[in-house]
Amino acid sequence: MMMIFICQYFTLLVCNHHVDKPMTR
Fold first, then answer.
1. How far apart are CA 7 and CA 21, in angstroms?
2. What is the CA radius of gyration of the chain?
3. Sign of the dihedral through C-alpha 19, 16, 21, 23
4. How many CB atoms are closer than 10 A to CB 10?
5. Over the stretch 1-25, which tens digit does the pLDDT of each residue have?
6. What is the 3-state secondary structure (H, E, C) of 1-25?
7. In the prediction, which pLDDT does 8 show?
8. Rounded CA gap, 14 and 2, in Å?
9. Cα–Cα distance for residue pair 16/2, rounded to 1 Å
10. How far is it, in rounded angstroms, from Cα 12 to Cα 10?
């Protein structure tokens, strides 16, 4: 149950860092 929460949190951080040039925020 907590895995999903952590996964979402991590995904958001990684996505924000990974998608910082093509999407620009």
1. 23
2. 10
3. positive
4. 10
5. 678 888 788 888 776 665 556 555 5
6. CHHHHHHHHHHHHHHHHHCCCCCCC
7. 82
8. 18
9. 21
10. 5
* C-alpha to C-alpha distance for 22 and 4, rounded to whole angstroms: 26
Of 1, 10, 6, 5, nearest to 18 by C-alpha is: 10
- Token readout for 20 is 């910082």
pTM check: above 0.90: no
**Tokens read off for 25:** 């925020």
